[in-house]
Amino acid sequence: MKFINLKIKELLILIVFIASCNPVKKMQTETITPKAATVVLPDGTKTDVFLEDILKQYPQYFDSILAHKKDWNVQIIYTQVNRGKNNLPKLTNYYFNVNSARYFYPASTVKLPTALLALQRINELKTTGINIDKNTTIITESGYSGQTSVYNDPTASDGRPTIANYIKKIFLVSDNDAQNRLYEFLGQEYLNEQLHKKGYEEVQILHRLQIALSEDENRHTNPVKFLDANNNVLYQQPLAFNQTKYAKRNDTLGKAYYKSDQLINGAMDFSKKNRISLESLHTILRSIIFPNSVLPKQRFKLTPEDFKFLYQYMSQYPAESAFPPYDSTNYQDAFGKFLLYGSQKGSLPKNIRIFNKIGDAYGHLLDVAYIVDFDKKIEFFLSAEIYCNTDNVLNDDKYDYETTGYPFMKNLGKVIYDYEINRKREHYPDLSTFRMVYDK
C-alpha cells in the first residue's frame, strides 16, 4: 500500500509539474493579446505595444521597418471589429508610430474624401429641388488661366461625363483627371470647409493632381453645368474663387530635389501642397463602412444607394469593370491594392475583397483599407504609410517602392490577416452587406 501511495504521489507531482509548464505557451499568446493602453509620446506619437509586438514577431519582414520607423515615417493603424449577437460592430483602434503632426504627402488618398463629398453635394442640391443625380451629365467649362473643358467622356458607355463615372475611375484605377473634375465641381472652399466641419481640421486639399498650376489657379475652379437628356440646363454654377486663408504650415521633405532637371540642395517645400493625416483618412473610411462608429458630425450625407455604389467600385478589380473598360494586362487585379498584395501580378482570390484607397507619390506609399474574407468570415481595417526614399532626394525617380514599400504593404497585410484568422471571436460577422454584384 505504501508503494502504491508513493506512486500516486509521484504521479500527482508529475501532473502538477506538467500543468505548471503550460503558462509558457499562454504567455507567448499574451504577447499579442491587446491589453496595454496606447502610449503617447511628448511629441504626440501614438503606439500600442500590442501592435508593435506583432511586428517584432516577424523580424524577417519588419526588422528594418522597426529600425527606421522615424526616418521612413512608418505609420500604421489597425482596427479590430468585434460583432455582438445582433451583428452590431464594436471597433477598437491600435496604433504604431502614428503622429498627425508629422507630414507626409497624401498623394491619391485625397480622392477618397473628394469622392464622398461629391456624392454629398449632389444630395444637398437635390434637397433644394434641383433634379440631378450622380448619373446626370456634367459639363465642365474653362473660365480662368490653366483650366480645361470637358464635353464628353470616351470611357463612358454613352460618352457622357458624369459624377458617377469619375468616381468609378477614381476607385478602379486612381484616375487623376477624374479627381480634378470633382475638385472643380466642389470648389476648393467647399471641399476644405466640409472636412473641417467634420472634425478633420488639419486637412488642406489645395490643388489639382498631376498638372502644375499656381496657388491662384488652384483657388479658381471651373464653371460647371448639369444637363438633362435634351441638353436643357438643370443646374449651373459659375467660376469660383476661394478667398479663405488657411493655417500657415512649415512642411518640408528631403535633403534635395530636382526642379526642371536642376538639382536643388535643401528640403523641398510642401507647405502649399495637399495635407491629410493617416488618422483622418482611417476615420473617413470607417465613416462609410460603419457610419455609426463615428461621431454624427463626421458622417457624410449619403443615401443607401450611394453606399452600395461606393462598396462596389472600391472593391471591384479593374478587369471586372464594363465601363470604364480596363484590360488585365495593363491593370492587374492588385493595381489598387497594396496591403496584402503589394505589386503582385495575376488574378486575386474572389473571396477576399478590399474596400480601399491607395496613394503613391514623392516616395510615399499609402493604403487605407477595410479587408474582408467572406469564406473565413473575418474583417478588419488597416491603414499604413511609409516613405520609400533612402537617398532623400525628391523628383529623381529613384524611390524604393519595389524593394521597401510594396513588400512592407504585402507583409503587413498578410501578418494582420493571419492574426485575424486565428483570433477568437464570440460572434462571426454577417458580411452580406459587403457582397457585391460586379460588372462582370
Question: What does this 3D model show about the protein?
Answer:
With 440 residues, the chain is α+β, with helices and mostly antiparallel strands. The chain has one domain (53-434): Beta-lactamase, CATH 3.40.710. 33% of the residues lie in helices and 19% in strands. It has helices at 2-21, 23-30, 49-56, 59-67, 111-127, 163-173, 176-186, 188-197, 215-219, 278-289, 304-315, 401-422, and strands at 39-40, 46-47, 75-83, 89-96, 137-140, 220-221, 224-227, 233-237, 240-241, 252-253, 256-259, 262-265, 268-269, 352-361, 364-373, 378-387, 393-394.
Give structural attributes.
440 residues; alpha+beta; Beta-lactamase; five-stranded antiparallel beta sheet; three-stranded antiparallel beta sheet; 12 helices
β-strand number = 17
Task: Specify Rg, calculated over alpha carbons.
Answer: 25 Å
By CATH, the superfamily comes out as DD-peptidase/beta-lactamase superfamily
Number of domains: 1
Q: Which architecture name does CATH use?
A: 3-Layer(aba) Sandwich
- Widest beta sheet: strand line-up: 4-3-16-15-14
- Order of H and E elements: HHEEHHEEHEHHHHEEEEEEEEHHEEEEH
> Would you tell me the structural class of the helices and strands?
alpha+beta
Please report the number of helical segments.
Answer: 12
Short description:
The chain has 440 residues and is α+β, with helices and mostly antiparallel strands. Helix content is 33%, strand content 19%.
